[in-house]
Queue: 2 jobs
Job 1
Amino acid sequence: MKKIPCASARNVFRSSALSAAVASALLLSYSGIASSATMTVKGVVAGSYFMPPVNSDNPSSAHASSTMASVYQSVKVCVDLNDNAACDSGEPFVMTKSDGSFLLASKTSGPLAAEISTASTNGGHVVTQRNVFRVAADQIAAVTTSPLVPANIAVTPLSTEAVRMMEDGEGNFYTVRQNLASRLGVTTDQVLSDPNTIADPVAKSAVLEESVILTNRFGFAAKMADRGDVASVPAAQQTAMNIEGIPRYDNIFIIMLENKATSSIKGSVYAPKINGWLNAGNQFVSYFATGNPSEPNYTALGGADDFGITDDNQWNCGATGANALQDLVIPTNSVPGLGSSPFTNPCNQATNHNIVGKSNLFNALTSNGMTWRTYSESMNPGQDFRTDSVGDPGVYALDNVYPPGTLGNNASQIGNPALQLPLPASLYKTKHHPGMAYQNVRSAVEFSTSNRTLGGGQWDAVLLSSTKYTPPANYNIDQFSSDLQSGDVGHLNFLVPDQCDDMHGITLQGKVNGVGSNVTASDCTGSANITRGDNYTDNVIKKIQASPLWNNPNKRVAIVIMFDEGTATAGFNSCCGWNSDKASTPVVVNPLKQNPDGSFSPDTSIVGYQSGNRGHGESVFGVLTNQPNAPKGIVDSDYYSHFSFVRTLQDMFGLSDPAAPGSYMNRSKYTESFIAANILNLPEFQGSADTHFDSVRPMNHAYVFPAGTTHKQSTDVTGSPQVGPDATQTNLWSLK
Amino acid sequence: MCRILLRAPRSSPLMNILMVLGLLGGAAFDANALSPTAQVGKMLFFDTSLSASGKMSCATCHDPAHHYAPANSLAVQLGGPNLNQPGTRAVPSLNYKDYTPPYADLADNPDGVSAPGPGGGFTQDGRAPTLAAQTQIPLLSFNEMANAGMADVVNKIQNASYAGLFQQIFGSTVFGDVPTAFASAQAALQAYQLEDTSFHPYTSKFDLYDSNKIGGDLTASEARGLAVFMDPNRGNCFACHYSGAGANGSVALFTDFSYEAIGVPRNTTDIPANRLVNGLPVSFDMGICSRPDHPRPASAQYCGMFKTPTLRNVATRSVFFHNGQIKSLKDALRFYNTRDTNPELWYPTVNGVVQKFNDLPAMYRNNIDTQVPLDGRAAGSQPPMSDQDLADLEAFLNTLTDGYQPPQ
């Protein structure tokens, strides 16, 4: 098979362009089509037309995203004899009609290319980004019964993906068609057919969802090729699946844990299972938080900035003027059904906690036809997602009991099986929701259906018995497990355990057999809390790994184990887009806004911004993937932060364009070159002793530490700092 | 040594741009314009007429040329109408007070880990909740600025050159109401201290180091000193002089605002109230439990506890602890290291018996902190830090002095 390693794709395609004859000979020989055969194709250029959601708290103007099966008009379809994804002069071509159809006859058979231009329309809508769809010669051969009968072919994003997969060395046409069908859970007939003709609604929906994603990816490929970033469209179509070296994944599950330095987890007898997973998978070992305490870190994970938030206060705090709440209903206890809500309004504070009009992962995903979920544990059934959970002395769970040898090598049992622990307040906290601070996320049409429950909690069995709220009908305490079975998870999934299971810890007390004085629970504080989180994390990972999704190798699925922040007590608090300026006055640190001419200038409208993004040390960061051939047991010691991770996720889901810094949200655009270009407006980076340390990059392991250089580390990491490059430069996200 | 971790060659244009701009950066962003309120605060701060002596302003003891600490090496400063009354306690610096929260018996520790305990507040016992409230103490104390009362202070402001500006800001009738006018002056003094960068400049070598700036490479001795500072078994300094990320975006304040009783020896020479009568103490300064709102016996558990000061600019001080009994940084470090192993170095010996903890009545000595290096180890045992450790630690503490200029 012809395999195009992405890192060298540019060179491969440059040389093939220089020796087109050799290249086409290779291509034709591998596709197994004799060039002398005649070919007639009667087909359609088809795909999807996507309308992004309109987010508003006004029900009359809000609507969800929608996708329609579509056909493309005025598209140039040709026999792409040299397989360069362009209709060159001399290659037989036709234009599609108003119904997207075409009839193309050629004396010479070959693959098809469909050049969708800005003169084309898609479902009647003007196309804004040029695109190229393709069909493998083998796909045509597979449906050709006789040279005299035209082959029925749909030129679609998915037929293009099949070609790309073949060129990526994933197998012959029949293999990649099967793999693509398996990825989507549809038949091999359905996967390459005109989506307009798929009768089964589930299959049609799956094909359309993939079609939207691929249309965006291949449109970006055409853009890169047209700009000259990549030498050809075929090469660009590979690059578009590997933006900044980050492969496309279908689903990622991010397990959020709380407040532990690397040194508190790595090698800890209290966290044997997480250590096992870290060692079995891949690890980023210089991963820095960007804020302190929780809320700024989660907010940064949602959109690569904390906007000056330096506390855990409610999302309505300081929300005045341009930042005034747009939520149609403020979830206070005066709202019918929310009598137990702990939410207070208003909340007076100088620093605004309601981020209005800023980009974030959630809106970016849904605007590009993808989905997100936050799965949160131990919410009160019937509560509003925008409020913290409340306690209920009326229901209780029993203390967790640890037999000898199950908690830090304990010699005797820890925990009291007769200790009754009433449901405590604040197991679920909005400060731990990466989208909560963003008005456009709370206002999103999918907000209420994308916040779901995560099971496995100590009080799961009694949550429905609580009288604090009225549980909705058919309330599912563990939607996550159901979604893993049905496949209805998001592309991006934040898994947020409650404050006992995430190692945060709260005051948790009860009475033995319900009487006597208060006794503290075994495992919601101190070192025992680490073991509790260790067990919970292990259970979640095993649950994911037992799912049909994980076990479908044609789905690319990753699990991340991470912490919101460390505990660094001295030295480097953060890196990679951080704010190293400690001063409170004069105010000089501001976010940047992009001007109509493309330049950037300070946005001085954010009160308190100066105090944000200062970081809080280092924590472990593990990556597991379901790809059997993916590298394992490797370590990337380059510097990354939450901003780097958000940049990585933008690459992973094809949300941004590396050639356009402004397409990366907020501080995730602060690469070394961007900072250099805007240094006058970024005083926090002036006088840098190490510009690599200070700047953002995707987590792609591209940087090689020069020999002899001593790595910077915080006091959250014990032991001597590494000197020189890593043992391997393999990308931890690699699929193979 | 770490500054060349660059993909680009050292002489790359990018690096040059960053380096050059780094050297010029301060001037480019000097936007330290004070609000009108803070401008009045500045005038109040330097106004010697706001004292009975007519010679003492805030800046007399809180000298901006000495990081807002005294310029001399007196254990306590002299004040009062004739500038001959010794102060009650050593004068603290006014540096880095902008993040200090009000006092609470159960304050959250900014390290996010330690259990809540007494913390926050101004003065060494926390009795003033804000910088503004704190100003009343020196303005009205008999042995400091010694004004007769709020009306006296307000009257002097009314006769000051900036009285018109004061009225512009706080209202033309502000002098008609003494409490309002006094509170306005307090607010102005606070605004000045919060707004003027010189009160919290973050221009030490350590700041260059932990902000990843050019010139911040620690020497071998300084780096070892940082390790001693952070080592729970040697200096363990960071346990109270917390240098990590704290509340409201604060970073590296070198205090967690907490209170500890560490048994500083009694200063019987410099502080009149501490003088012995017939060889015996008459009264004790016991920190929190000497406050009117924390009377004994209800607050007995707080007796002997004083606030942890920031260590920023500590190397420029010449008196240490609440009573100024220790007169050099070297000795302060030695006290921590040998209070328990060699108490005779620090406390008087009477009839052959070392009077350890001689400034805290025996009934309150259970309050004495027991963390390393003051872990109560036996006299004659090995101190937690070696002489080399002490030298290195001192070198590190010298990196906390503001106004550092890297060698060119």
Note: Chain A has two domains: 6-240, 251-694.
Job 2
Amino acid sequence: MSASVQATLKAEAKDLNFYYGDFKALKGISIPVHDKKITALIGPSGCGKSTFLRCFNRMHDLYPGNRYEGEITLNPDNVNILSPKVDPIEVRMRISMVFQKPNPFPKSIFENVAYGLRVRGINKRSVLEEKVEVALQNAALWNEVKDRLHDLAFNLSGGQQQRLCIARALAIDPEIMLFDEPTSALDPIATASIEELMDELKDRFTILIVTHNMQQAARVSDFTAFMYLGEVVEYNDTKKIFTNPDKQQTEDYITGRFG
Amino acid sequence: MQQSVAEIRRLIARHKFWDYAFAIVGMICLMVGILVLLSLFADLARTGAPRLTPAFFTSFPSRMAEEAGILSAWVGSVLVMVVTACAAVPLGVAAAIYLEEYAPKNWMTAIIEINVTNLAGVPSIVYGLLALGLFVYILGFGQSILSAGLTLALLILPVVIVATRESLRAVPGSIREAAYALGATRWQMVSDHVLPYSSAGIMTGIIMGLSRAIGETAPIITIGALTFIAFLPNSPISPEFPFVNAKWLMDPFTVMPIQMFNWTSRPEEEFQLNAAAAGVVLLAMTLAMNAVAIYLRYRIRKKIKW
Amino acid sequence: MEREHTFKQYDAELNEIRGLLLEMGGKVEQMIANAMKALVDRDSDLARRLIASDHEINHLEMAIDEKCLQVLARRQPAARDLRFMTLALKIVTDLERIGDQCTSVAKRAVELNQEPPLKPYIDLPRMANWASVMVKEALDAFVRGDSELAIKVCRDDQFVDGLNDQIQRELLTFMMEDPSTISRALKLNYISKYLERIADHATNVAEMVIFMVKGKDIRHTAPPSGDELA
């Protein structure tokens, strides 16, 4: 593969199976997640891409009857974040998430971004103010909201709300950011601004994104995994996947022949 | 086959007939209920109007109908409500939070849930009997404000629990996930997010419960509230340190509905006027509480749109 | 046969581009044949008509470009479809150039027809025939996605190059023996060069077909062998 593959690994899924009760939703998934790169997960609805993403911050632990098998190792400490011995809260403090629909808390813009910091025990006003500003700047929202930090977050537009959620997720300096179809509820312009933002963020963060929109994966990601029926059909350089994939199934999917 | 425009119009006209028909029937049904209530209230107000003077609120009951007032009754009602709220709110809200957010979903909790809902339908006199045994005799609270408050608290507990659970459930899962995703524990998620966001609904539930409790007569009679009280309980606030005291909790008392019941059972015609006036006051108290609930809901809903 | 797109209209558009390319290819083959005929039969009229007909090729080129742009803008093709589109855009240029080469042959033919013939033409028609077959096979390979045929076209180019060398050496001897033939020999030399270019364009197309089918870029490398691409 190409030279960029030699970048360091931030995480790696190794033969990961996941069960919703008796239903095996993920089957033997093994892919690397490269440090400071964007990895996209694509595939038709119900292929397990969101399920896979949500393994990374142990979201499945919130609901009964879910079970993991296999490993996701997180570097640099090479810890298996799926191990029952690892507290899911610890995992979520290291790996943050942006959801499909903007879900700001019904609090002020400031408190939304500050919440993750407060959970980490940071309550000093001056520290919070500084970190909130940095996070909002990193999320390209600062200029739009700096005069109304104490307004309700619900008064922002959809795209601004999603960028607020991104600011909230990156305020805690996560090691990996998970994006679960972050633009599916947004208009094309807001989508473009989020994509631009992701491109800037990848200098500092490792990003894993699930998207329905193949062109989005082609535009923003460095690596792409095509999933189908709970399996990774093909994992490759994004350039390769979208010009000349190795597998026929991948080719059929991305050219719009099924799915 | 395409229908002609004329046919379509005829079809719409036929469908719309039932639209109008139901609108009219529904309006009539609504009017029957509202008009009956309004006329009853108007009659009550007309009958009681001559007695609704400031003195009525500041006088103790008396053998003379013209001099009798509801001072001890309304003070008693307010104090009993304070006890009820203090007992029912923490218990009910905590129980609801546990059931909704903490309890594992299994057959045990399912049975508990069904029973909590059923408890709301238990006749209030049964609560009275229960309280008579438990609070008055076993715990030895006597026929006091404390006993009455706790009894009514038991009575409205299911209401508070059900209302609280409904409000907690109205907070979308995405907000819970957002909090968890930032590393919040369950308690942080509940106390920082779910509880504040559902406070409007919870408050509404509590007030609705209290407005039911304020009108309850049967359980209070069962535990033996006095009907003729020509003195006030000890004041909860005292002039010297520590400024509050708990002596009033153990005092005998009366409440509005009992005072009314007492007056209506008198043979003299004049006391019926007193009962009507007290009825107006009680109704006004209930309506006022409901109005507060509606206002709270409106104000907080304006801030939170899911 | 490959699966259809979920959006059937997309298939129709790709097929339309494919059809236009074939039409253009057919016209170009005809032009090669006519150019040779004009030269061998000393038919200046035919040559002039051929020169005039070049605008048809140019029109087709523009039509295909336009269609390709529309599909690119509206469908955002990916993978195989994307390779097909980029290929179509390039093939069209090659075909248009072949058309230009044919008009150049025709122009030289008109000039030559005004002078006595230098010699009977044997190798030039052979070369033209080879080039024409290469163009046809390259397009067939493109339409059928047949990489074997495309590989054959690439190999045939070496033979045409050989013919070109041979013709040039022959013409050189003419020029050295009798300087009065220089002007005619140079023109024939040009024609040989034009035909060699046509074969090169056909080879370009064939190489791109291999890229489309196999996803492997063999341009600017040694001529491919069958096993390498298997």
Note: The first helix of chain A runs from residue 49 to 55.
